[in-house]
Design goal:
By secondary structure, the chain is mainly α. The protein contains seven helices and two strands. The chain has one domain. It is globular and about 60 Å long.
Length: 249
């Protein structure tokens, strides 16, 4: 990609009428195809014996790590309901960023359209998990807490964090790609290699941050139901305690 082009959306490989196949679309589908192929190869011979293939062992390590992070962020909740969603987010972004070592490859996460789509998916997933945990009425009620005046501010907060997710990921990946492209043209080989390695580390960190923030937003939605349940339990128990308590004569 030319350093003067700010986004892989501008790199068009094929066009027919209003339909275009640009670098963002091409490499997004390439990443998805690669992930599907690798997962199929790793999981086609799953075993529970002591002789575990290296691919399955590596996949189990990744899944265990993601499960641990979900459990820690959610305060001990079972990670199974969130693993497919959070794990897919992390693996897609990490794979898209790590493939920058391949010549000619442009990460789709360097496009604002990709990062915006990922952020919108998080924006939609938060109420889905929230409603599934506590019901529609209870979830919508938290938008007017502690009073109805907070409704527009809570809505703006949801929209602003969605925008922040998209811009943060896009800015970090796009800037790293541009810096390496510039250094390749003006500096000897050693320095671009160093910055490329740093870029891979940054890409992995950005995938981790995006997945963690998505889980934090989900926990913020489902934690309201936990607080409500605790308050209801306390309210139900307090009359019983009051009725059984008698003052000393």
């Amino acid at each position: 990609m030319d350093v003067t082009q700010l986004s892989p959306d501008e790199v068009v490989y094929w066009e027919w009428g209003f339909f275009q196949v640009n670098a963002t679309i091409l490499f997004t589908w390439a990443v998805m195809a690669l992930m599907i192929g690798v997962v199929w190869l790793v999981t086609r011979h799953l075993t529970s014996s002591s002789d575990v293939p290296r691919g399955q062992n590596a996949l189990e390590v990744v899944i265990d790590y993601i499960n641990g992070q979900i459990r820690e962020i959610s305060g001990g909740d079972r990670p199974e309901p969130y693993l497919p969603y959070i794990g897919t987010l992390f693996l897609f972004i990490a794979t898209a960023n790590l493939l920058t070592i391949l010549p000619g490859y442009v990460p789709p996460t360097a496009s604002l359209s990709t990062t915006a789509a990922l952020a919108i998916v998080v924006f939609l997933a938060v109420p889905v998990f929230g409603v599934a945990r506590q019901g529609l009425r209870a979830y919508l009620h938290h938008y007017i807490e502690p009073n109805p005046v907070m409704l527009p501010f809570n809505v703006i907060g949801d929209l602003s964090r969605t925008l922040a997710l998209a811009v943060r990921l896009f800015g970090n990946i796009m800037s790293g790609t541009k810096i390496v492209a510039v250094l390749v043209g003006i500096i000897p080989l050693v320095f671009p290699i160093v910055f490329r390695a740093l870029g891979l580390l940054t890409g992995l960190i950005q995938a981790y941050i995006f997945a963690v923030l998505a889980m934090v937003y989900i926990v913020s939605a489902i934690s309201v139901s936990k607080d409500d349940r605790h308050q209801e339990q306390d309210a139900m128990q307090s009359p019983e305690r009051n009725s059984s308590w008698t003052p000393k004569q």
